[in-house]
Amino acid sequence: MQPNGDANQRIATISAHLNPRSLQMEESSGLQQVNCRAKGGSSGFRVAILGAAGGIGQPLAMLMKMNPLVSALHLYDVVNSPGVTADISHMDTGAVVRGFLGQNQLENALTGMDLVIIPAGVPRKPGMTRDDLFNINAGIVKTLCEGVAKCCPKAIVNLISNPVNSTVPIAAEVFKKAGTYDPKRLLGVTMLDVVRANTFVAEVLGTDPREVDVPVVGGHAGVTILPLLSQVKPPCSFTREETDYLTTRIQNGGTEVVEAYAAVRFADACLRGLRGDGGVVQCAFVASQVTELPFFASKVRLGRTGIEDIHPLGPLNEYERIGLDKAKKELASSIEKGVSFIKK
Ligand SMILES: NC(=O)c1ccc[n+]([C@@H]2O[C@H](COP(=O)([O-])OP(=O)(O)OC[C@H]3O[C@@H](n4cnc5c(N)ncnc54)[C@H](O)[C@@H]3O)[C@@H](O)[C@H]2O)c1
Ligand SMILES: O=C(O)C[C@H](O)C(=O)O
């Protein structure tokens, strides 16, 4: 898997030769494979991953290729997408996979997509906060969202690139500028916090994490990650010591491990919503009136039009009310930072 221009062209030639029907050729010749949009092997949704060659992007691509709701999978990156595409495309599952390399293929990658998942950008190194990524990732998200606004304005967007607390407001401003903003279709992925919370709470309770549901609200960084331990299902209670331990561990989970599993589960929930399944509810960072802030993570119900309902926070205990105040303070400045990045 050593992708470069030549390898790309070789893959193009081989793909076109072996299965010309699976490709929708553009008029122009050249690097045809990467310029071709996948037709889709079966009925299902068309999904693009932007940043598909990265640490999150690659396993995400593999797991989305295994998802029966996906008929076409577009893998876009500024490096290495041909090799990743070749690997993933050999999996014997329904979705047709196409690779797209570099800025001039962004539009082809995006055209016709139902769901766009964005894990593009730089990740944290030890000692960094997610906000330290702002300077690089803000510009990347801006450019990619301009592409979305132009080529698939009706797509659901799952924003993974950090700092999510600022990149979601950036995306919203880009879409507003383009006249395509639909707050129901823009979701910051905070599901990893829920997945971690379920796991850590189950550890403390000595139960199966699949049986546990912990709402995590606020945002996706440090104190803005607010697990509502008073609302855990099935109902249970924690000592003050357990509450401190769990809250701190959930808030700092990203320094332990970073993984794609939650992104896959969240994308699957969005697709099940688009299909019309009932009762699809997940936490996400979205435009919201749950608090006085313009964006906030809480439980949302996903449906055919994206977010169909945003759940209120429910009753909070004293510990959570103090946590909420801290979360809102930091969130307000992260949101403002994202908004003014576009407005400046
Ligand atoms: N929200 C979450 O729960 C969550 C979870 C994990 C990671 N993240 C964030 O996701 C991002 C990616 O993390 P990673 O570990 O995959 O990093 P990575 O460096 O392994 O991968 C990032 C990928 O993005 C690509 N990229 C860079 N600029 C691009 C551009 N302009 N267009 C398209 N692709 C571009 C890179 O080439 C690379 O392949 C980071 O910002 C990280 O903090 C968020
Ligand atoms: O923590 C990170 O930097 C990545 C991601 O946001 C996570 O929560 O794992």
Automatic annotation (TrEMBL):
Molecular functions per Gene Ontology: L-malate dehydrogenase (NAD+) activity
InterPro entries, sorted: L-lactate/malate_DH, Lactate/malate_DH_C, Lactate/malate_DH_N, Lactate_DH/Glyco_Ohase_4_C, Malate_DH_AS, Malate_DH_type1, NAD(P)-bd_dom_sf
Superkingdom field: Eukaryota
Entry-linked SUPFAM superfamilies: LDH C-terminal domain-like, NAD(P)-binding Rossmann-fold domains
Catalytic activity reported: (S)-malate + NAD(+) = oxaloacetate + NADH + H(+)
Keywords: Glyoxylate bypass, NAD, Oxidoreductase, Peroxisome, Tricarboxylic acid cycle
Domain Lactate/malate dehydrogenase C-terminal intervals: 190-341
Keyword presence, Hydrolase: no
Gene3D superfamilies on file: Lactate dehydrogenase/glycoside hydrolase, family 4, C-terminal (3.90.110.10), NAD(P)-binding Rossmann-like Domain (3.40.50.720)
Binding site for NAD(+): G51, A52, A53, G54, G55, I56, G57, D77, N137, I160, S161, N162
Compartment list: Peroxisome
Protein name stated in the entry: Malate dehydrogenase
